[in-house]
């Protein structure tokens, strides 16, 4: 089975709605933004691989990586996503 590229994965309509809703909101409502991402993900243990990859890609994009967007909830969500991805990698 071929792995989809991140470009294919992020075309997901549900993700596009979430992503658009976050634009311009991080400075004013970081907790709300994290809640939206958490809602999109659902339970990490039952989330599909595409959702995990989408969030990993998003949470490591330039605004987060260089520190323009910062909040403790981001670190928490990032750790949830990475932990689940590592767990799945070692289960294979």
Describe the structure.
The two termini are 14 Å apart. By secondary structure, the protein is mostly helical. The chain is built from six helices and no strands. The longest helix is centred in the last third of the chain and has 20 residues. The chain is 66% helix and 0% strand.
The tally of strands reads 0
Structural class: mainly alpha
Cα radius of gyration in angstroms: 13 Å
Shape: globular
Oligomeric form: single chain
Question: In which range does the helix fraction lie?
Answer: 55-70%
Q: What is the typical, i.e. mean, pLDDT?
A: 93
How many domains make up the coordinates? 1
Tally of separate helices = 6
Summarize the biggest pleated sheet: none
- Amino-to-carboxy terminus distance: 14 Å
In terms of DSSP E residues, the strand content is: under 5%
Secondary-structure element order, N to C: HHHHHH
Low-pLDDT runs of 5+ residues are: none
Q: How is this structure best summarized?
A:
With 92 residues, the chain is an all-alpha fold.
Note the topology.
Elements: H1 6-9, H2 13-22, H3 30-41, H4 49-59, H5 62-65, H6 72-91
Helix pairs in contact: 2-3, 4-6
Task: Based on the model shown, name its key terms.
single chain; 92 residues; mainly alpha; 6 helices; 0% strand
């Amino acid at each position: 089975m071929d792995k989809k590229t991140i470009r294919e994965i992020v075309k997901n309509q549900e993700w596009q709605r979430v992503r658009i809703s976050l634009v311009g909101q991080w400075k004013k409502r970081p907790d709300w933004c994290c809640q939206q991402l958490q809602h999109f993900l659902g339970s990490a243990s039952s989330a599909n691989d595409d959702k995990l990859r989408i969030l990993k890609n998003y949470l490591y994009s330039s605004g987060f990586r260089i520190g323009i967007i910062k909040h403790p909830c981001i670190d928490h969500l990032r750790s949830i996503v990475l932990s689940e991805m590592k767990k799945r990698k070692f289960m294979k």
